[in-house]
Every structure is written in structure tokens, then in C-alpha cells.
Amino acid sequence: MSGIPRFSLASLVIDCHDADALAAFYGRLLGWEVKARDADWVHLRSPDGSLGLSLQGEAGYVPPHWPERPGAQQKMLHPDIRVDDLDAAVRHAVALGATEPPAQRQSDLRVLVDPAGHPFCLFLTAVGAVGAVEAVE
Predict the structure, then answer these.
(1) Where is the VOC domain (predicted)?
(2) 74, 51 Cβ separation under 8 angstroms
(3) Which helix or strand (DSSP H or E) is residue 15 part of?
(4) Which CATH class is domain 1-58?
């Protein structure tokens, strides 16, 4: 035994104004169900149980700007979501309440903004997670 404890990412938490509204968006987008709910907090989990997404309502929440601007609230992290049909996925996400900013850097990845203002990426399976991260940075 090396003495290093085992770590396993179980969930990500996203701050927003309205946890219920943002949970409804991501639940419909990803096909995930609500597994727990409390005042100003909703937890979703992937169908296989491997990853969770919690939405936490914060009264002082300030949405990030995309693309970034000097002096404006910056994103701190963003979800990368793999899809098999990018155009259909963009249309579906927009129909659920996402917006597509005009600033796009490549044809096989789209940066969208969720209803609370957080950017997220949709990318084709062929791109892979590393390609998506490099393309956005």
C-alpha cells in the first residue's frame, strides 16, 4: 500500500440562481433523473450511476460570459458532452433552453450556454474528450 488514499470523482456541482430549473434542463438534455432534492439543491445521476451532477441555487450567483471578456465573470469549468450527431444535439439543446453563441472555433465541436449562463461543449464521438478540451482552451 502506497499510503495514498483512493479518489473517485462522484459528482460535479454547478451554482446557479434556480437549481430546479437548471436541473430540469440538464435532466432533459442528458436523460438523467433527479435522485435527491433539498432547498436550493438538486442532484441528478447518470443512468449507470457512475457520475452525478448537482445544481445548487445561490442568491449571489453571477453567470459567466462566453466568450470571455476582460473584467467580466469568467467560467471556472464547463461540461464536455459527447454526442453522436452534433447538429441534432445542438437543435435539441437549444429547444430545451440553451443558446448557441456565434463564437465557434471548430466544426466538430459546439460551445453552447445553458439557461443559467454556463458554457458547455457538445462534441462528436470521433473528437474524443482530449480533443474537445484542447479545442476550447
Answers:
(1) 8-129
(2) no
(3) strand 11-16
(4) alpha beta
d(CA 57, CA 35): 17
Q: How many residues appear in the chain?
A: 137
DSSP 69: -
Q: Where are the domains of the chain?
A: 1-58, 75-137
19 in Cβ contact with 40 (< 8 Å): yes
User: Which distant-in-sequence residues (6+ apart) come within 8 Å of 82 by Cβ?
Assistant: 123, 124, 125, 129, 132
The SS3 of residue 21 is helix
Tens of pLDDT, residue by residue over 20-31, are 999 999 999 999
Give the CATH class of 75-137.
alpha beta
